[in-house]
Design brief:
This protein is α+β, with helices and mostly antiparallel strands. The chain is 31% helix and 26% strand. α1 (3-16) packs antiparallel against α7 (233-251) and α3 (66-74) runs antiparallel to α6.
Length: 252
């Protein structure tokens, strides 16, 4: 770690207790790891010890996330209307999704939150989703500032190859916007489909893939990368700074 990270960790421990970052420090020293990874979690870069090895989660089970889930679902009709209007009238607001694996032309994204901040230009294009996300994810600090929120549209016949995302300390929420027959999602060893207007919640450090098997219609969900509910406030501060520093070193 860098001197800046060492100083931050010391300050966090002084405020929250000497053991506040035990799991983060264990993650950084694999030889100290007290538990093994799930076989379908092996390709994740960072696995915080003590997080439940549960691929699928109940989106209604966590009080911290429930206001966001409830508001997204209750405003589904307007969120869908905004997205459909943007898809027809403001297609330049969408771009090829820049997944860390590859940029896919058949996977289109309209970003609401990116690079640690709301994408202000999306407020005009998707006002309902923008407002709900701001009030119930950004202002409440449940969104992971290392990642993003976006409308995710798979074109007819598109698929996302099986992969593990980078870590397990954030969790992925999907609001099903427009779901054609033939679309599905597998996380670990269980495949599900989306129920339009409802949310799914899963740990994407487990191997997962998605597909739109419909040859005529697009599949659209609203995705939000949230802090895993089993992380602490102290860990979130430390992990944000740590991952930003690692990304900076890798870029340099």
């Amino acid at each position: 770690m860098t001197p800046e990270i060492d100083d931050l960790f010391a300050a966090i421990k002084a405020e929250h207790g000497s053991d506040a970052l035990d799991r983060v420090e264990e993650m950084l020293e694999p030889r100290r790891r007290s538990e093994t990874r799930h076989p379908l979690q092996q390709d994740a870069k960072w696995v915080l010890p003590g997080i439940s090895q549960t691929p699928w989660h109940d989106p209604y089970a966590y009080p911290e996330l429930l206001p966001l889930v409830t508001e997204l679902e209750s405003h589904h009709a307007q969120i869908k209307a905004d997205q459909e209007r943007a898809w027809v009238e403001q297609r330049d607001s969408f771009s090829d999704y820049e997944h860390y694996l590859v940029s896919q032309r058949n996977w289109q994204a309209l970003y609401l939150y990116r690079d640690g901040a709301l994408a202000e230009e999306s407020q005009r294009v998707a006002p309902t989703a923008y407002r709900v996300l701001k009030e119930h994810a950004v202002d409440t600090d449940v969104i992971c500032p290392l990642l993003e929120s976006h409308f995710s549209t798979l074109l007819p016949g598109a698929s996302i190859k099986p992969h593990c995302d980078l870590w397990n300390f954030s969790i992925n929420l999907h609001l099903a916007i427009d779901i054609p027959e033939g679309a599905g999602l597998r996380v670990a060893d269980e495949a599900r489909t989306w129920d339009e207007g409802k949310c799914l919640l899963f740990d994407y450090s487990f191997e997962h893939e998605a597909w739109n098997g419909n040859d005529e219609r697009t599949r659209t969900c609203l995705l939000a990368d949230l802090w895993h509910p089993e992380t602490t406030r102290a860990e979130r501060v430390a992990l944000t700074a740590l991952m930003k520093e690692i990304q900076k070193m890798m870029a340099g």
